[in-house]
Specification:
heterodimer, A: 212 residues, alpha+beta, 4-stranded antiparallel β-sheet, 4 helices, disordered C terminus, B: 191 residues, 51% helix
């Protein structure tokens, strides 16, 4: 018989061994014990998980109640001061409302003085007013031009341009037009009528303040 | 299987029985208090918001007392510029005082209080209507209007009608002719 040489890379060991004296025929069956253990363990795990879940919810509820209780106590402690300040605030807001109403009241107005002064200062020679009427965003100017029909027409057109270019009238009235120009037997000239319209406020906003 | 058998069986497995009982109790409790956390969270949010509001009120209200004093003074000033419709004599006197300073002549002066419009928003103040007929030179009439605009009471022009009068009865008009102005205006007043 030839002895094989031990290879240099292979470890030198012998497998562990011991005599097996167990008589498996006589030993009790451990499977039942094992099964019971696992079932119990599983039941305990499930019950523990459910208990923890319930406990966590109860803890959250307790925490929320504590927070609410603390907040309510804090509110109660500050209620008197808060009520006093709310009363002051109501008083303040009543004042503010009064100012807002007064402001809205005066904001929508047109300055009659400035209107008359602007009309008077922009009126050219040989033209004069017989009536000036302003109502509901509409200004009507009636008057006479002491000139023949051709010259009167040119003067009326020039006056319309002057009105449109006036810093007050041109800004307040956006639509300016000549509505009548005819011979006036009384003054030996031409009588005219000019209509000036203010823009309508349709978007619910307050009219622009025109009291320049 | 009788009840006795069932009890006997449960006794044989005490741990699973106890665990099952615990699970049942927990599920029952969960069922009963299913919405508890949600309700508590909503309630807590409400209370916390209230608290936050109260704290903000107190923080922001530190200077409110001082502002109220200033506001009261301004409101008193405003109130003094609001007309009382019931005091007719005083109200008309206001127009006649301006007449005296501007040298115009008041031909007609009326006060009327407009009936409240149905459905209109409730307001603290309201407008009192006046109609005035004035005669005078153009500059005097303009001066009267100017006094009203910058006068004691808050004013708003509703309509104006200015006509040149005839002084010599011949029908010819000159620049020295007096003018007649019909005014409709509102003064801010108490309801």
């Amino acid at each position: 018989m030839k002895l094989q040489l031990k290879r240099s890379g292979q470890p030198a060991y012998a497998p562990n061994w011991h005599p097996n004296f167990r008589n498996t025929q006589l030993l009790p069956d451990l499977k039942v014990v094992r099964t019971t253990f696992f079932i119990n363990a599983l039941c305990i795990a499930i019950a523990s998980a459910v208990l923890m879940f319930t406990g966590y919810r109860e803890f959250q509820a307790f925490d929320l109640r504590s927070n609410m209780s603390a907040a309510n106590q804090s509110i109660e402690a500050q209620r008197a001061e808060n009520d006093r300040l709310l009363g002051l605030n109501r008083e303040f807001m009543d004042g503010v409302r009064k100012f807002e109403e007064a402001n809205a009241f005066v904001s929508a107005r047109i300055s009659g003085t400035k209107l008359l002064i602007a009309l008077g200062s922009s009126l050219p020679e040989l033209m004069e007013f017989t009536a000036i009427t302003y109502e509901k965003n509409l200004l009507s100017l009636r008057g006479t031009i002491k000139a023949d029909s051709e010259s009167a027409s040119q003067r009326a057109s020039a006056y319309l341009d002057a009105l449109r270019g006036d810093p007050f009238i041109g800004q307040v009235f956006t639509d300016i037009s000549l509505t009548n120009l005819q011979r006036d037997t009384g003054s030996q000239g031409m009588s005219f009528e000019i209509l000036l319209k203010q823009p309508e406020q349709t978007d619910g906003r307050k009219p622009a303040r025109i009291n320049k | 299987m009788t009840l006795q058998d069932l009890i006997e069986k449960l006794r044989r497995f005490p741990v699973p029985t106890a665990c099952g009982a615990i699970v049942l109790v927990c599920f029952f409790a969960f069922y009963l208090r299913m919405n508890l956390l949600t309700d508590l969270e909503i309630e807590n949010d409400t209370v916390q918001r209230q608290l936050q509001q109260v704290e903000q009120n107190i923080t922001h209200g530190k200077t409110l007392g001082e502002h109220i004093e200033q506001m009261k003074a301004k409101v008193a000033e405003l109130d003094s510029r609001v007309i009382k419709p019931a005091e007719l004599a005083n109200n008309l006197k206001y127009f006649y005082e301006i007449e005296a300073t501007t040298r115009v002549s008041i031909g007609d002066l009326r006060q009327s209080v407009a009936a409240p419009v149905k459905g209109a928003p409730k307001t603290i103040l309201s407008a009192v209507d006046y109609s005035v007929l004035i005669t005078g030179q153009f500059h005097e009439v303009v001066s009267y209007l100017n006094e009203l605009e910058h006068g004691r009471y808050f004013y708003r022009l509703e309509s104006i009608n200015l006509q040149r009068g005839r002084s010599d009865g011949t029908g010819t008009k000159s620049k020295a002719d007096p003018v007649t102005m019909s005014l409709n205006l509102k003064l801010l007043g108490w309801p």
